From TrEMBL:
Name of the protein this chain belongs to: ATPase associated with various cellular activities AAA_5
An annotated Gene Ontology molecular function: ATP binding
UniProt xrefs under PANTHER family: 5-METHYLCYTOSINE-SPECIFIC RESTRICTION ENZYME B, TYPE IV METHYL-DIRECTED RESTRICTION ENZYME ECOKMCRB SUBUNIT
Gene3D superfamilies in the record: P-loop containing nucleotide triphosphate hydrolases
Compositional bias ranges of the Acidic residues kind: 931-945
Positions of the UniProt region annotated as Disordered: 925-945
Length: 945
């Protein structure tokens, strides 16, 4: 049911669309004419239905409907006729099951529930009729609704034209992509929003599909306000107060996204004409961050930019609970860079326009008009409180006039150099608020933090002046090699030096450590002496180990942040906090001490007497975007377009991976599993350093995948062993360091390895994130899989059936099938062929051969994937790449050998799959090719067909 609060809002939107349509006399005249003609057509269609109910003649039904639909006002299009043609052509003579099912289906149902039952029954009996798995079931709601709408029933049934539910989806009123699931919601909306005039609802949705922008919804302010109120119950890391609140917040966010998405697409052409630009409209995601418990937006905006980058300057139409803004938006590299941008903007800003201060997402009201630039992202333009916002189509001219006036501002912002990926020198305005966010997001402190602090105390006792007299080499190795109280990095050289020492040398080493840590000289001097091999130093004893020891024995002064330089060094932390760096004229020891003291002085008030918390916060700042701009671009939508897949399919995968943390894509070779995994991973995490792909093979081991000891030879040729991290341990460390960022590990060919052997005790962690286990090589050190590390496996069913996967492992993954011409993959090849101007019959050839292989091989594990034919170099403005020579080569050297292997010893069957044989059955001039072209001409079916 439509939410009671949404009903008046949606009704106002319907009225707004109607007002826009009423301003076009040609449109309203066309609708009036259509109503008259449709009345006559309905009586004719009911006569056709009555005849079919009497004689059950499918061929006659098909022919009668085909003739009828050519008449003016007939509610039936080419895709519906194609479905009916397929049913009639492929129903075997004497097959009464299909006839009875269709006869029952065309009888007008008495309720929505009964209509759904009729759709499901008809889908079950028709989906296996043709070589490609049956007439496309996604067209059934349209076909049946056309018959039902002709009946003079009360309440009336609307026709489910493809544009109507699609526009409901774009408006955010629908969240499903299957026509079967959309149908009941579509009927309810048509009846509730246009009572007694369901055909008007059809017309209005069709009009909106052609004229995306009709103004902003009159009730958009109340949508923002309700969403902001719900956000008040949101807690970072936990989510909303309950599931119903989260669901409502999601619904409102998608309605906001839908309104502004229609504005972005509906105005971009007019903007480009008026401004003489080539702007692109870019959608904005509904969540403010990629997380299962992430908050949903309580504001929305368009993005019109000259490129697809996620931090490029843009023109924006922005709505909040307080009002509407049109302006120029730009990111800065850091605080000083943003101030410089703002100064350039101020010099060009037209009279009557203003800067806006961007508030945090969780404030619920993002924009505050201010007299002058203050800080943060730069956004400047014109502001209207809601009671002053132009109504309906009047807003179009306002947007065009305002953006034209802002072009000098946009030009001065767009001309600046691109910002590098890493923002150095970033100052933090409200460090206390960020510290609180760190405590929530990470979260801090947890049990593992307590363990680190306990280990510090243990090491401090070992390094005390008294205990250094009896040096504990084993415990010292744990200090330098592990991650207890921070990891100093690989220490193979120091390990080699220690291994070569006899008891006398070890005593000397212990005395030097005593002098370094407890000597009378200044700390900086002792550090410099320790770095000198001819003084207190030892080969391999570097800065990180030295600073870790000082952090252990003197926690009141030193942070467990060990390197001085590098991306995770103390200087990087100083830059991130906007603090002065040590003078390069100082010695190395003096620089370490100066950097440490400056950091400690700034962080101590935030984490009193907690050096571990201070260092963890500083590392968190380095790894996370603390200004929280939110994901600006709908990267999943862009990936779906590139992959020729429904965006809703990628959204479903997103929900699955957020739910369990790991998914498996399984299916025959050539179905794009790895390619989709890679594109999906890039969509949820654009930073390539936070993504990794590893391929399993039969000899893959736990040591290869997670961690294990590996030999290493030092400069002197001496061999030692060091504990080396594998892909999973590396990605886990990165994810733990940046808890606010998703990290993705793709495991290609998952089922080629002995999975219980490779995963070992990690199998437990796949299900219980944030739990600890003791691993094989670090039995005394807890290890956990961070919740923000997501795993995508791909599994080729031609190599091993998924049934052979260990049951315990299988229940820890969601399994997503990649089967040719089924579900979301059903039209990938067709879409690609159409988009690139390649021959349509190739799709029907692949479907036909796959249907034969399904029967011969008793399953889908070795069907032909679409990627064999999606070759590089294709394009709508280029000559066809899939010419006869290329197609033969693909078949003879890529597909036929696979079929030959499966049909070994069956030459009589194998001969049916040579290129010449399949070309005769399915190539140009064949019945399937003609049917394929007919479907293309009638327009490609719906996404879920």
């Amino acid at each position: 049911m439509i939410h009671e609060t949404d009903l008046p809002r949606w009704q106002a939107k319907i009225d707004q669309i109607g007002a826009a349509a009423a301003s076009d006399e040609d449109v309203t005249a066309g609708w009036a004419k259509d109503e008259v003609e449709r009345g006559a057509r309905n009586a004719e269609l009911r006569a056709i239905v009555d005849a079919f109910l009497g004689d059950g003649d499918l061929s006659a039904l098909r022919q009668s409907v085909d003739e009828w639909r050519q008449r003016p006002g007939a509610a039936f299009d080419g895709s519906g006729q194609t479905w009916l043609n397929q049913v009639a052509r492929h129903t075997p003579d004497g097959d009464t099951e299909v006839v009875r099912a269709l006869q029952d289906a065309v009888r007008t149902p008495r309720s929505i529930a009964e209509s759904v039952q009729k759709i499901d029954t008809l889908a079950q009996v028709t989906e296996q009729l043709t070589p490609r798995g049956g007439p496309q079931v996604g067209r059934i709601p349209f076909v049946l609704s056309a018959f039902w709408s002709a009946d003079d029933s009360d309440p009336a049934w609307p026709v489910m034209w493809s544009s109507a539910p699609q526009m409901m989806y774009e408006l955010g009123w629908l969240r499903t992509w299957s026509n079967r699931d959309r149908w009941p919601q579509y009927v309810e909306a048509a009846r509730d929003l246009c009572p007694g005039q369901v055909t008007r609802f059809e017309h209005l949705m069709t009009y909106l599909a052609e004229h995306k922008f009709v103004g902003l919804s009159p009730h958009l302010a109340s949508v923002c306000a309700e969403a902001a109120d719900l956000m008040a119950s949101y807690t970072r890391g936990t989510g909303y107060a309950d599931d119903s609140t989260a669901a409502r917040a999601e619904s409102l966010a998608y309605q906001l996204r839908g309104e502004l998405g229609l504005a972005a697409n509906g105005l971009v052409s007019d903007l480009n004409t008026r401004l003489g630009r080539q702007l692109r409209a870019q959608p904005v995601d509904a969540r403010i961050e990629f997380s299962k418990t992430g908050a949903f937006r309580a504001d929305a905006y368009t993005i019109w930019a000259e490129s697809d980058g996620d931090r490029v300057p843009s023109l924006r139409l922005w709505v909040t609970r307080s009002g509407v803004a049109i302006g120029v938006h730009a990111y800065g590299e850091n605080r000083s860079d943003e101030a410089a941008i703002a100064a350039r903007v101020a010099s060009k800003l037209p009279e009557g326009m203003t800067f806006f201060q961007l508030q945090p997402h969780l404030s619920g009201d993002r924009l505050v008009p201010v007299d002058g630039y203050q800080s943060g992202q730069v956004f400047a333009g014109r502001w209207w409180p809601w009671d002053e916002v132009p109504h309906g189509l009047e807003l179009r001219d306002t947007v065009l006039d305002t953006t034209e006036a802002l072009i000098p501002v946009f030009d001065v912002v767009s001309a600046r150099p691109e910002s590098p990926a890493i923002r150095e020198n970033a100052a933090v305005d409200d460090l206390a608020a960020l510290a609180q966010r760190f405590r929530t997001d990470r979260p801090y402190p947890n049990d593992k933090d307590a363990w680190h602090k306990d280990e510090r105390a243990r090491f401090a006792e070992m390094l005390s002046p008294d205990n250094l007299v009896v040096f504990d080499l084993d415990l010292f190795r744990m200090l330098i090699n592990g991650t207890r109280y921070g990891g100093p990095g690989p220490q193979s050289v120091l390990n080699t030096s220690l291994s070569s020492m006899n008891s006398i040398a070890l005593d000397e080493f212990a005395r030097n450590i005593h002098e370094i840590l407890w000597g009378a000289e200044p700390v900086a001097t002792r550090i410099d002496r320790a770095l000198d091999w001819e003084d207190l130093g030892t080969r391999g004893l570097g800065e990180s180990v030295l600073m870790k020891m000082f952090a252990i024995v003197d926690p009141d002064r030193f942070l467990p942040a060990f390197p001085l330089t590098g991306p995770r060094g103390k200087i990087a932390m100083l830059r991130r906090l906007g603090l002065p760096e040590p003078d390069l004229g100082l010695t190395r020891g003096e620089q370490h001490v100066a950097a440490n003291d400056t950091l400690r002085g700034r962080l101590e008030p935030l984490f009193p007497e907690d050096p571990w918390g201070q260092a963890q916060f500083a590392y968190w700042l380095l790894e996370n975007d603390v200004e929280d701009p939110g994901p600006e671009i709908d990267l999943l939508g862009r990936a779906a377009s590139e992959l020729f897949l429904p965006e809703s399919f990628l959204k479903e995968i997103e929900e699955l991976i957020l739910e369990k943390g790991q998914v498996v894509f399984y299916g025959p070779p050539g179905t794009g599993k790895t390619y989709v995994a890679d594109k999906f991973a890039a969509a949820i995490q654009p930073d390539p350093d936070r993504r990794m792909l590893v391929q399993f093979h039969p000899s893959m081991s736990y040591e290869d995948f997670f961690e294990g000891y590996r030999p290493r030879t030092d400069e002197a040729g001496q061999m030692s062993y060091e504990l080396r991290r594998g892909p999973l341990a590396l990605m886990a460390a990165k994810a733990e360091a940046a808890p606010g960022q998703p990290h993705v590990l793709i495991i290609d060919e998952l089922n080629r390895a002995n999975l219980p052997r490779v995963f070992g005790e990690l199998l437990y962690l796949l299900e219980y994130r944030r739990k600890w286990v003791r691993t094989a090589y670090r039995a005394d050190e807890p290890f956990e899989l961070p919740a923000n590390l997501y795993i995508i496996g791909t599994m080729n069913t031609a190599d091993r059936s998924i049934a052979m996967i260990d049951a315990a492992l299988r229940r820890r993954f969601h399994f997503v099938p990649f089967v040719p011409h089924e579900g979301p993959l059903s039209n990938v090849l067709r879409r690609w062929l159409k988009a690139n101007g390649e021959p349509a019959w190739v799709a029907s050839l692949v479907d036909g051969v796959n249907d034969e292989l399904r029967g011969l091989l008793r399953g889908t594990h070795l069907l032909i994937g679409h990627s064999h034919f999606m070759v590089a170099g294709a394009g709508p403005e280029k000559a066809s790449v899939l010419d006869d020579k290329r197609l033969r080569r693909i078949w003879d050297y890529g597909i036929y050998p696979m079929i030959e292997d499966q049909l070994y010893g069956k030459p009589e069957k194998l001969s049916d799959f040579t290129w010449e044989a399949v070309l005769r059955r399915y190539g140009p001039g064949s019945a399937p090719a003609a049917e394929e072209q007919e479907a293309v001409d009638a327009e490609l079916g719906s996404d879920d067909a």
